[in-house]
Design a protein that fits this description.
Elements (H helix, E strand, L loop, with lengths): L17 E2 L3 H8 L2 H10 L3 H4 L7 H11 L4 E7 L11 E7 L2 E7 L6 E7 L6 E10 L10 E10 L3 E6 L4 E5 L4 E6 L4 E5 L18 E4 L7 E2 L1 E5 L5 E5 L5 E7 L4 E6 L4 E9 L2 H8 L9 H18 L35 H8 L11 H5 L37 E8 L14 E6 L5 E7 L4 E9 L6 E10 L2 E5 L4 E5 L5 E5 L2 E6 L8 H6 L15 E8 L2 E6 L4 E5 L7 H13 L2 H15 L10 H13 L7 H4 L24 H9 L1 H7 L2 H5 L11 H5 L2 E2 L10 H16 L5 H17 L3 H10 L11 E2 L2 H6 L13 H10 L6 E3 L5 H13 L15 E3 L26 H11 L4 H6 L2 H16 L7 H6 L3 H11 L7 H4 L6 H6 L10 H7 L5 H9 L5 E2 L10 H29 L21 E3 L4 E3 L14 H13 L9 H6 L8 H13 L8 H9 L3 H14 L6 H8 L17 H14 L6 H11 L13 H15 L15 H10 ...
Parallel strand pairs: 14-19, 31-32, 33-34, 35-36, 40-47
Antiparallel strand pairs: 1-30, 2-3, 3-4, 4-5, 6-7, 7-8, 8-9, 10-11, 11-12, 12-13, 14-15, 16-17, 17-18, 18-19, 20-21, 21-22, 22-23, 24-25, 25-26, 26-27, 28-29, 29-30, 36-37, 38-39, 40-41, 40-44, 42-43, 42-45, 45-46
């Protein structure tokens, strides 16, 4: 502190005065608004929004000049932080002209602008408001709703709302608004009523005057009011009384105060949501109730608002100013959803509530006004029926959708009539304040009468109603509430500032504006009497109260901000005040607090330290003590100033001292403490002899019984004792306990409470002396004292209570003061739960372990019980978990735990230790923090972050060093996460190899040797031909690269996506000359690279992770400038669809792209949009696709010329959008399209196969897995029709609307009327496979059997046998077995017997069989079976499946080189080999298996001969699948995934790069829909880097295998989640962690989708697997060998291997390292080292302080220096905890873990304590003990040891002993019996027996 003695300046120190200037005023001058306005005018839209529509530049300049003269306004509120912690600053909202400035600042920190808004017309009002965004608009207000904090700016025609998140809305207003009020629910508007509003024609209905808007996108709806009628009936109607004005609105409680100008009365209403029945009354939906007028009201009102918003405003309407600009947003078809003004349109309502919006037709003018009149003031119930009132019903045309009211005001209270009616005026200021005891008052200031009227109100018991008292008038000029200290500041007419609490006057306040510098003040003689008379006239008004700060406006116009001082600043005084307040009657409590406030803040108020002394003095005075005569109070140090309560102001003490002073000093506590101080002993100072104080001898003091608190002394004493017990539970409050105990001892002695005195003596043996001053309380007066019912003769002791719980004895409920003794309550309940095992202890509301202490009589205690119920969703299995969860629920944190004394904290720490071992994975973050599992709390915290914002991305993002990027050209694979991949594949460089194989950005090497006979020209041609061959491979690479880099990159929104270029040139060694295809030497197919660049674009786009933040603008921004790259962009669009980002692309842009007519763009866009809307049946997308499919257009529509490939893409798109929906119409059309005949004019003639296949695939998707349950499609005969398409036959008559088109056959293709099976078979086969997928339907499967006669085999293309076998196996899903026997079983007998098996070399000869057919059929069937095996075990890494497929792949490779290859055909063998390779890659997807990689690399090398583009495509797809997403992704086997894979891996590969005849190449990318993230990456929570960890994965049992577990070393791909039961991170290196999937898999799914980061925490003394693969280097392994001498073996330096905690490291550094010549200290260092070792290896470093505290306490006891016995209590509690029954039972259950202090430490300590006490007994302690027990005074020197003995052995008090009648006992057995009731342990009895049996000298030990 600067100077303790510096006196405060003013009377009641009205904090620091500060000149106040609204911050915004200054800021406005520098705000560049003129410029802003000019810039704004340049934007075309602004003309729409400027207030008059014609404000050009001139207008804006004029505004600037006017600006200086404009009126300003501002208001302040308490700062609100984002997180919700206390903040000490004000927020100011300043309005001037067109500007609103929101600033934050306080006296300690400078103000700063937070936001500034400039709008186009003058701001009428600005305010803060919260809107509730509710998920459901139900009655439950607290249901599922979040609050949007906003700032609202009102202009004349609209209101702008800006939310903190940055959304802004503009809502236009349909009327002139007089005032806006923020409410709990939204905004409330008052319509301003103008003079000419009263209509000329009497029958007209008045319009409502108050409206509400619950959200800026909602309609503005009229307010309903419900007022009590004359005879108790209540009426519900719109608020339409223009005389009624709102003067005040409050959010909590939600009330409105209005003023009726006609009657001159204030009324109070409660504001709430409308109940449905009230809506019905007003809207007249219900038939009964009410008169027809109401009908009129609602419809006329609706008509009014609606018609106005349509722009045909009526002549005499008050709404004229509503500009007709907004009329566009009316009609339902207008795009008002996108317009900036969501005015009152139905569309806006639709956008939030999804109610169907009906078009509203306006009424004609006549109808609108021809209504009966009906005055709607809630005061006067006059109802006039007009003759035409009944006919109004006819006007309620059905299309009028009424405006449903949302809020209702309910009448509560109206002030009484006054006779001075003409003088009454509306309240200028209203506020709610509460007094010091929490009673609430509503105060309103009527300035014209200088009156502040206060009404006391309270909530009813069931919290539903408010009950109002009578009005009290205070004389006042102005007033303001001071929330912080529950008072209000009143400016009286005389100019005095007075502080009131409720209606009780507290104190005058003197701000002394001129005398600001303290130098004048010190000298000024009249400082004591300086009231306001000199300055009073200066204060003019009070405004802007915030917290405890308020602004005074002075009459000269300047403003001063002052701070009202607090009630109390020290924690201890606050607690005591709170406790006393809670048990005194309210009036007395207020008086006491007022008294204290005056004392505390008297001029020259106290400094912080003496606050307690002041408090004690004040309290004792109020109780009737004469504090001057009490020695210890006189002795309290007031540091300078004496409080006016103690001494009269004029009495000056003499400067010379007196003898009394010396004795007084010797008697002081301070002196006694010094005497017992260690230093005194060390210096051998002799104690001074003290003569007894004269007071003691001369006279005893008596109490004055007339004082305020005299009768309440016992109650006050008791609650202060409870506060004392509460403080014992906070080890930081030791100072406070000592201060408090002195006061308690005095009171206990005066109340003659022996047990209490004894109790305090045992706690503080040295403080509590035997002889002390007492004050006599007369017997007569004792009767006056009321001992409250909760007062107990035995002192309640929290330690004693815990001790008896631990020992298993019953304990009476512990008294508890709500709001003060929160810690006691927490400890009592947690011990009841954890030690007594009572689960109900924390769950029900009134606990049997606590008795509540209240001032109220007993009966109402039940109602007042604090409700803390424990709600936790997950079932809790153990008490430890229940305890930890409950403690977090009530807000208990680690910091609280650290301040608990160690003995009390032990049970809680034990529970935490148990939970730390096996926590549940779905616990909330706070629980994980409490149990010290940072890994879990970080996981929980990540889990709450929205996707894309998590820090996981930073953990797993790879930082490529910048140097490398420049050299290597971007091959599209540099963004892969190297760190994780190097953990997965740590042994070799396979990832680099994959990059090398898949890169397509560098020229290829063209190695052709020039033969001597070849001339140069031919040589060049030869090189180019070779390059052409190699380019077939290069063009196939991007597809595989897309798989490898899948979802690995988060793009920067300001840069375009880097797309690596596709390089089709070559370099020829040795000179490295460039070889180019465009030289013109050879023929190159046209458009050769267009699909390759499409694939390149897709690969680039698929790098973008789904969690990235991307918007429509960025997608358009990536559009390339030059046309060559259009194909790439088309691919990019498709990729965005596949990763879900295309849904963000605006419809406008989609339309843009499609109208360009670029074929590739259309294909990419249609497929992308459909994939993004998978299975949603989205209508707008369906329309989009239908335009491109002639079959879905109406027959009469104009024929659009849609390119064939776009049609194919659109058909597949339909399949995707309707996937799994079994939508009938779609299915019917697609079924017909499979067999679509070629048209007459050559249309549909080319590439018919791919269209038919697409229709089949789409049909399969639509009916995916529905099997025979296709609801409502039985008449379509889907399976039969498909079967016919598959095997051929006569074409059925074409049904449906398209038969006209196909009447005339094609002129080119002669198909006749049979089905062309070659076209329709593949689509139909796959459609059957998908419809009956996994249904195990045998009858359908038999249709798909391969034919088993030669005759039939000749009818089927061998290729189709592959599809049939695949389809059959997919249907019989459960029959697939991963062995070669099963694969061969699919081959029909005739083929098996006659065909060449794959390994034979020579060809068998046969005449009647076509060997070629058989051989081809054989290989294709086997390939089909292998492919189905791939689907069945996709992504499973199943070893059997892998071995089986690997064998077949090898076989096919042998076949290719065998001489028999020519029979089967190279092409066929290559196709089959590719299929088997793909199957292998599917099974091993994402695993990067080395053997498969070798196969792929071998295939990559083959470039000549039969190897065409398609085979390369297949081989590199296999390579991509193998490393899917860089090892982060795998394939799923869900139905939808299989459908996507069937499209992507269709086993007919294109012959060249532009070949789409059989299958559209773009579909190859649909594999993305089957990929799912399954990589789990453990990340070390301390270093934040990925690491290895051992996982134990448990599979659920299935029909093939039992429940099994296997161990995996993560990072690893998990199996499919639905197969798993649980996943566990196994010890011993990391803390265990269990993820239980039986409770649901969302938790694990969310982890996997966020890059699979699972936080793990290394256990102490362990190294990670990377540093120490075998586990031989860990510290524990080293120390186990020499366990016996562990104290020596443990070197403090080694601790860094155990822990990263800086506190522990420095402890080792300073307390465990030996320094030179220590001598006896060496022993302590060794002890510390071994303690540290034990704490760290047992993983409970938090126990280190407890160990050391125990050690220190025991040493102190040995030296007999215990001045307080708390530590001994703690040791006792620790010992009792370990011997408690509950702990023993726990140990039996889990013997290995848990024993917290498992070494020899505790027994040794226990033994030492016992010995120390026994030695004391022998050395004269027994005499001392005897005299204590017999009630005689004891020697001073033995006091502290005696107390230790009594506490440690739980010796009863002498009072209890004498009651037990122990004196005459003869034998030990008698003693045992008698001590049974006193619950004293036998070991203590053994020590007491000799004394009690009468021979104190013969102690037998």
């Amino acid at each position: 502190m600067s100077n303790i003695y510096e006196e405060k300046v003013t009377m009641i120190a009205a904090g620091d005065l500060q000149e106040f200037v609204p911050f915004g005023r200054d800021h406005c001058k520098h705000h560049p608004n003129a410029l802003n306005l000019q810039l704004r005018q340049l934007q075309p839209a602004s003309e729409l929004w400027s207030s008059d529509g014609a404000a050009g530049l001139v207008g804006s300049l004029q505004e600037v000049t006017i600006h200086e003269k404009q009126k300003e306004s501002w208001h302040l509120r308490k700062g609100i932080s984002d997180v919700g912690e206390e903040v000490e600053y004000d927020e100011e909202l300043y309005v001037a002209g067109n500007m609103v400035i929101w600033s934050k600042g306080s006296k300690s920190q400078a103000s700063a602008v937070y936001k500034a808004f400039t709008v186009d017309s003058p701001v009428l009002q600005a305010l803060w408001s919260d809107f509730i965004i509710s998920q459901d608009k139900s009655e439950k207000e607290d249901g599922s709703s979040e609050v949007e904090k906003c700032i609202c700016i009102l202009q004349s025609s609209c209101i702008n709302v800006h939310s903190m998140e940055g959304k802004d809305y503009i809502a236009s207003l349909p009327f002139q608004v007089a005032n806006v009020w923020p409410t709990k629910y939204g905004l409330l508007f008052e319509r301003s009523s103008s003079a000419h509003e009263v209509p000329p024609s009497p029958p007209r209905e008045p319009l409502p005057t108050m409206f509400s808007m619950l959200h800026p996108l909602d309609e503005i709806t009229p307010l309903v009011c419900k007022s009590g009628g004359l005879f108790g009936t209540s009426r519900v109607q719109y608020v339409a009384d223009s005389a009624m004005k709102i003067v005040f609105l409050n959010a909590d409680p939600s009330v409105v105060m209005t003023y009726d100008a006609v009657q001159g009365l204030h009324s109070l209403w409660i504001l709430r949501r409308v109940k449905p029945e009230e809506q019905n009354v007003v809207l007249k939906f219900s038939e009964q109730g009410g008169t027809p007028q109401h009908v009129a009201t609602s419809s006329s009102l609706t008509a009014h608002l609606r018609s106005l918003s349509k722009g045909d405003s009526p002549g005499a309407s008050p709404f004229q100013n509503y500009s007709s600009i907004h009329s566009q947003s009316r009609s339902t078809s207008s795009p008002s959803l996108h317009s900036r003004s969501p005015s009152i349109s139905n569309m806006a309502a639709l956008s939030r509530s999804h109610s169907p919006a009906l078009g509203v037709h306006s009424f004609s003018g006549v109808q609108r006004f021809n209504f009966s009149s009906h005055n709607q003031s809630p005061k006067r119930q006059s109802v006039s029926h007009s003759p035409n009132s009944t006919s109004n019903d006819s006007f309620l045309a059905p299309e009028v959708e009424p405006i449903v009211p949302e809020l209702c005001i309910d009448h509560l209270w109206t002030e009484a009539m006054t006779n001075t009616r003409e003088k009454n005026s509306p309240a200028s200021k209203v506020f709610i304040t509460s007094d010091l005891c929490g009673q609430k008052f509503l105060c309103f200031l009527v300035e014209s009468q200088f009156q502040l009227r206060c009404v006391k109100f309270q909530e009813s018991n069931d919290k539903t109603q408010l009950i109002f008292g009578s009005v009290t008038n205070l004389h006042a000029k102005d007033a303001a509430p001071v929330e912080k200290i529950d008072t209000m500041l009143v400016l009286e007419g005389s100019g005095n500032l007075v502080l009131y609490t409720g209606l009780v006057r507290v104190v005058l306040l003197s701000p002394v504006p001129e005398l600001r510098d303290s130098s004048k003040l010190h000298d000024s003689p009249y400082i004591d009497d300086c009231t306001f008379q000199q300055l009073g006239s200066y204060i003019h008004s009070v405004r802007d109260p915030v917290h405890n700060r308020v602004t005074l406006e002075l009459s000269n116009g300047s403003m001063v901000r002052i701070t009202i001082p607090e009630i109390a600043t020290s924690e201890l005084v606050k607690k005591c005040l709170q406790a006393i307040k809670s048990i005194l009657p309210k009036e007395i409590a207020v008086q006491m607090l007022v008294k204290w406030y005056n004392v505390h803040n008297a001029p020259g108020g106290p400094s912080y330290h003496s606050e307690w002394n002041l408090f004690v003095t004040c309290l004792m005075n109020l109780m009737g003590y004469n504090t001057d005569r009490l020695a210890w109070i006189r002795n309290l140090d007031f540091e300078g100033s004496l409080s006016p309560v103690i001494a009269p102001k004029k009495a000056r003490p003499s400067d010379t001292g007196s003898d009394e002073d010396w004795e007084y000093l010797l008697n002081s506590d301070y002196h006694q403490n010094v005497e017992s101080h260690l230093l005194t002993r060390a210096l051998h100072l002799n104690p001074l002899e003290v003569s007894l104080m004269k007071d003691d001898v001369l006279h005893n003091l008596t109490l004055d019984s007339s004082t305020l608190l005299f009768t309440h002394i016992p109650a006050i004493f008791f609650v202060l004792h409870l506060v004392y017990e509460e403080l014992k539970l906070n080890s930081l409050m030791g100072e406070g306990i000592r201060s408090l105990v002195v006061l308690l001892v005095q009171l206990a002695r005066d109340l003659q409470l022996e047990p209490y005195l004894d109790y305090y003596y045992r706690d503080y043996p040295t403080l509590v002396k035997t002889s002390r001053q007492t004050c006599i309380i007369d017997q007569a007066q004792t009767v006056l004292m009321n001992r409250p019912p909760f007062f107990t003769p035995e002192p309640p002791s929290i330690y004693q209570w815990l001790s008896s719980c631990l020992k298993g004895e019953g304990a009476s409920p512990y008294p508890y003061l709500s709001g003060v003794c929160e810690r006691s309550k927490l400890i009592v309940l947690s011990v009841a739960l954890y030690i007594l095992g009572d689960e109900r202890a924390v769950s029900n509301e009134a606990s049997q372990y606590l008795s509540k202490v209240t001032s109220a009589p007993k009966k109402s205690q039940m109602e007042q019980n604090d409700r803390f119920s424990f709600r936790h969703s997950t079932p809790v299995n153990s008490l430890a978990e229940k305890l930890v969860l409950w403690m977090t629920n009530v807000g208990f944190t680690l910091r609280d735990l650290e301040s608990l004394p160690f003995g009390v904290a032990l049970p809680i720490r034990d529970a935490i230790y148990h939970c730390r071992e096996q926590p549940a994975s779905e616990w909330p973050e706070a629980v994980c923090l409490l149990i010290g599992r940072q890994d879990l709390s970080k996981q929980a915290c990540e889990g709450n972050l929205p996707k894309g914002k998590s820090s996981v991305a930073q953990v797993l993002s790879s930082d490529v060093p910048s140097g490398t990027e420049a050299e290597e050209e971007d091959d599209g694979m540099n963004d892969m996460n190297q760190e994780v991949m190097s953990l997965i594949w740590s042994e070799d460089l396979r990832v680099q190899e994959v990059r090398r194989l898949l890169q397509s950005a560098h020229p290829v090497r063209v190695n052709v040797v020039q033969m001597p006979e070849v001339n140069d020209h031919e040589y060049i041609e030869e090189k180019e031909n070779r390059l052409l061959q190699l380019c077939q491979r290069t063009m196939a690479l991007p597809l595989g690269r897309g798989m490898f880099t899948l979802f690995s990159y988060h793009p920067v929104p300001t840069e375009p996506l880097p797309v690596p270029k596709l390089n089709l040139t070559g370099r020829a060694p040795p000179r490295n000359t460039t070889v180019d295809l465009n030289s013109g030497n050879i023929d190159v197919p046209p458009n050769m690279a267009c699909w390759a660049s499409f694939h390149n674009g897709v690969a680039a786009g698929l790098k973008i992770a789904p969690a990235s933040q991307i918007d429509s603008a960025w997608i358009v921004y990536n559009k390339p400038k030059n046309a060559e790259l259009a194909n790439e962009y088309a691919g990019f669009l498709m990729a965005l669809g596949l990763n879900g980002h295309l849904t963000k692309l605006a419809t406008l842009n989609i339309h843009d792209y499609l109208t360009k007519g670029h074929e590739m763009t259309s294909i990419g866009l249609l497929l992308g949009v459909s994939a993004a809307k998978l299975g949603t049946m989205d209508m707008s997308i369906t329309r989009l696709l239908s335009i491109h499919i002639p079959a879905l257009l109406p027959p009469t529509s104009t024929e659009l010329d849609v390119p064939h490939n776009v049609q194919v893409a659109a058909v597949i798109g339909i399949g995707l959008v309707y996937q799994g929906t079994a939508h009938r119409h779609t299915a019917e059309v697609l079924l017909a399209e499979i067999g679509r005949p070629p048209g007459p004019e050559m249309e549909y003639c080319t590439d018919r196969e791919s269209y038919s296949l697409a229709a089949g695939l789409a049909l399969g998707m639509v009916c995916l897995g529905h099997g025979s349950n296709l609801i409502g499609m039985s008449d379509l005969n889907v399976p039969e029709q498909l079967y016919q398409y598959m095997v051929g036959g006569h074409r059925r008559f074409q049904a449906g609307m398209h038969r006209e088109k196909h009447k005339s056959p094609s002129y080119q293709i002669k198909e006749g009327d049979t089905i062309n099976v070659d076209v329709t078979c593949p689509g139909a086969t796959l459609a059957l496979a998908m419809i009956y997928l996994k249904t195990n339907n045998r009858s359908i499967a038999d249709w798909l059997r391969a034919p088993d006669t030669m005759y039939l085999l000749d009818f089927v293309k061998p290729e189709f046998l592959l599809l049939r076998t695949l389809a059959r196996c997919l249907i019989l899903w459960d029959d697939i077995l991963p062995n070669s026997k099963w694969v061969d079983s699919n081959v029909p007998q005739i083929i098996r017997e006659n065909s060449i098996s794959l390994n034979e070399t020579e060809i068998p000869s046969s005449e009647d069989l076509n060997l070629e057919t058989l051989a081809q059929a054989h290989v294709y069937i086997i390939a089909g079976a292998c492919l189905s095996l791939g689907f069945r075990f996709a992504g499973s890494e199943n070893l059997a499946a892998f071995n089986c497929l690997y064998k077949f792949a090898k076989d096919f490779m042998k076949c290719l080189s065998a001489p028999t290859a020519s029979v089967t055909g190279h092409y066929n063998l290559e196709t089959c080999l590719s299929v088997v390779l793909l199957s292998l890659a599917m099974v091993m997807a994402g695993s990067g298996n080395l053997k498969v990689l070798q196969l792929c690399r071998f295939m990559h090398k083959k470039t000549g001969g039969e190897m065409n583009y398609g085979f390369h495509l297949a081989h590199h797809m296999a390579l991509g699948l193998l490393f899917l997403g860089g090892g982060r992704y795998s394939l799923s086997t869900s139905n939808s995934s299989i459908a996507a894979l069937l499209c992507a891996l269709y086993p007919h590969f294109p012959v060249h790069s532009t070949d789409n005849r059989y299958h559209l190449q773009a579909l190859r990318h649909l594999y993305v829909l089957a990929a799912e993230p399954r990589l789990l990456v453990p990340v070390d929570v301390d270093t934040n880097t990925p690491c290895y960890a051992l996982l134990e994965v448990t599979y659920k049992g299935t029909q093939w295998y039992e429940e099994t577990t296997e161990e995996l070393m993560a990072p690893t791909l998990l199996p499919e989640l639905h197969l798993l039961k649980q996943i566990k991170v196994k010890g011993p290196r990391y803390w265990e962690l269990l993820i239980d999937l039986s409770k649901g898999i969302h938790h694990l799914k969310s982890i996997l989708s966020k890059d699979g980061v699972l936080y793990v925490k290394l256990r102490a003394g362990q190294l990670s697997y990377k540093e120490d693969p075998m586990g031989w280097q860990s510290l524990l392994a080293q120390t186990v060998t020499h366990r016996n001498s562990e104290a020596r073996a443990f070197k403090p330096e080694a601790i860094s291997a155990f822990t990263s905690d800086p506190a522990l490291l420095s402890f080792a550094e300073y307390f465990c390292k030996p320094t030179v010549n220590l001598g006896q200290k060496q022993e302590i260092l060794d002890l510390f080292s071994s303690i540290l070792y034990e704490c760290v290896t047992q993983e409970n470093p938090e126990m280190l302080p407890a160990y050391i505290a125990i050690d220190q306490a025991v040493r102190r006891l040995e030296r007999r220096e215990m001045s307080e016995t708390f530590e001994l209590w703690q040791i006792k509690l620790v010992l009792e905890f370990f011997s408690s029954r509950s702990h023993q039972e726990r140990m039996q259950k889990i013997p290995s873990r848990g024993l917290f202090m498992n070494s020899e430490f505790l027994p040794v300590m226990k033994c030492t304590v016992d010995n120390a006490l026994d030695q004391w007994l022998q050395a004269g302690g027994d005499v001392c003990l005897h005299s204590y027990l017999s009630g005689q005074p004891t020697e001073e020197s033995h006091l502290s040891m005696l107390a230790c003995f009594l506490i440690y052995h739980s010796v009863p008090t002498p009072g209890q002993l004498s009651a037990g009648g122990l004196e005459g006992s003869m034998s030990f057995s008698e003693l045992l019996l008698k001590f049974k009731q006193l619950k004293m342990p036998v070991r203590a009895l053994l020590r007491l027996a000799p004394l009690l049996l009468g021979n104190p000298q013969s102690m037998v030990l």
